[in-house]
Inverse folding.
């Protein structure tokens, strides 16, 4: 039977021979719900400020003002429309402050009262520089404006540290018409003076509102260049002047200048400031070989082929840069120099217009020359004096022609240029050397004959010539015994320079 049972199994189909017992389904694993994170509070957006700053002094808006949130690092600059926007201001109370050169010049701080900044909200602000009348009233009450309705306000700062310059003296000079039964109508020089306070601030009250004046600052025998002040019916004019410390503006000679003396010795000063720039015509084309001079310093150079120039060894402070080239009107521009960084300027010269014959009242011309000491020195008979009438009689085509008949001066042609030499004296002067002064400042010759290259003859109002032993102290160059030629321009003597 066993054999029969085995045979029966073998006879079965293969899939029927092997059977796998059914598996039990795995036990179901319970699914747990995912943990839920606790809900975090949603912080509101940071507050901010938007607004505009108006310039009530000059009209329009205040461009480039620094707007700061006090107590934070949040700040921005006003754009070309005077607008600003500051984001992410920490919530709480903060003041908004404004900084700008216009405000510095009148020593006024502009800011808001504390403002509460709340999350998600912007404070909308409208700020303004005080009006000219308001500022003028702060510094000059009505009682101090009897002689004139206008005010000149400003600050004098150390050129290298921007710290207030205390005790600096300011002089504002202009001319105005005076009527007298004896002499008729004439121009009379006027001067207003002031001294800076502990903040370096000055105010000159009682100024006429229709004058074209010049402002100069001085301290410790160091003077700034003149800065033009044009009132043009304005109540307020402002200016920031900078003066170098005596340690950084070293006198080249032992001479000193006094702003109270008419015959001021010319003192050249050196320093470590640098002036660079480019000279072009009004169309932007480079002017090659233009003479760039900083009066009162040894700084003088010629522009290169691309119009570029560079001057080093200059004293810090508000200086004047003068550019001259034949065919162009002389260009004089104030610049603020400092040892902290080079100053770069772009100077555009205007082509000189044709000059028609002018008629000048002789009395007025004499007064102009008297102011620069010409008439007084002429009476001393210590030199040769060439007036405007003398110049017109010679009908010169260039500056050297003025001196062709002057005793002691020889005009020679060297390499196509007229060169002036001396025919008198001993020692150094026997070699023919000549020292030049232009408008009270030494003229440093770049090469023989350059006076014709850079000085149009119709600019010269008068000239003085002194032999080596008769040179006035104000035109004496230390250690030199050369013949001296002093020239005065119409621009200088006509604007009332002392």
């Amino acid at each position: 039977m066993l054999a029969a049972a085995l045979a029966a199994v073998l006879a079965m189909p293969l899939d029927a021979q092997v059977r796998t017992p059914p598996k039990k389904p795995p036990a179901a694993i319970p699914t747990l719900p995912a943990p839920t994170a606790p809900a975090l509070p949603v912080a509101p957006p940071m507050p901010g400020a938007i607004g505009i700053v108006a310039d009530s002094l000059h009209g329009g808006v205040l461009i480039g003002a620094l707007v700061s949130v006090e107590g934070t690092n949040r700040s921005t600059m006003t754009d070309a429309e005077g607008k600003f926007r500051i984001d992410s201001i920490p919530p709480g109370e903060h003041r908004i402050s404004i900084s700008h050169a216009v405000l510095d010049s009148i020593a006024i701080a502009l800011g808001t009262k504390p403002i509460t900044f709340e999350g998600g909200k912007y404070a909308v602000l409208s700020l303004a520089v005080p009006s000219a009348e308001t500022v003028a009233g702060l510094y000059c009450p009505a009682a101090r404006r009897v002689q004139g309705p206008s005010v000149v306000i400003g600050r004098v700062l150390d050129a290298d540290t921007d710290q207030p310059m205390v005790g600096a003296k300011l002089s504002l000079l202009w001319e105005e018409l005076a009527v007298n039964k004896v002499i008729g109508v004439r121009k009379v020089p006027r001067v207003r003076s002031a001294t800076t306070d502990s903040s370096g601030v000055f105010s000159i009250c009682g100024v006429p509102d229709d004058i074209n004046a010049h402002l100069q600052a001085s301290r410790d025998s160091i003077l700034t260049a003149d800065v033009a002040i044009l009132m043009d019916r304005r109540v307020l004019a402002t200016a920031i002047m900078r003066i170098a410390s005596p340690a950084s503006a070293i006198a080249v000679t032992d001479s000193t200048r006094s702003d109270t003396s008419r015959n001021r010795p010319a003192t050249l000063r050196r320093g470590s400031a640098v002036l660079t720039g480019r000279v072009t015509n009004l169309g932007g084309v480079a002017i090659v070989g233009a003479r760039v001079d900083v009066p009162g310093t040894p700084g003088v150079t010629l522009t290169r082929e691309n119009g570029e120039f560079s001057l080093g060894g200059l004293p810090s402070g508000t200086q004047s840069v003068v550019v001259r080239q034949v065919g162009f009107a002389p260009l004089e521009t104030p610049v603020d120099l400092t040892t902290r960084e080079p100053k770069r300027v772009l100077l555009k010269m205007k082509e000189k217009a044709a000059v028609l014959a002018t008629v000048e009242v002789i009395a007025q011309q004499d007064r102009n020359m008297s102011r620069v000491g010409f008439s007084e020195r002429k009476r001393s008979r210590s030199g040769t004096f060439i007036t405007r009438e003398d110049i017109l009689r010679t009908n010169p085509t260039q500056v050297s022609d003025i001196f062709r008949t002057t005793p002691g001066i020889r005009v020679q042609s060297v390499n196509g240029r007229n060169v002036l030499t001396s025919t008198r004296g001993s020692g150094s002067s026997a070699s023919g050397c000549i020292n030049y002064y232009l408008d009270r400042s030494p003229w440093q010759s770049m090469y023989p004959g350059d006076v014709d290259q850079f000085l149009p003859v119709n600019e010269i109002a008068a000239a003085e010539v002194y032999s080596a032993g008769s040179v006035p102290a104000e035109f004496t160059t230390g250690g030199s015994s050369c013949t001296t030629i002093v020239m005065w321009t119409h621009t200088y003597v006509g604007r009332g320079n002392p």
Observations:
- Residues 362-371 form the longest helix (10 residues).
- Confidence is low (pLDDT under 50) at residues 254-265.
- The first strand starts at residue 48 and ends at 55.
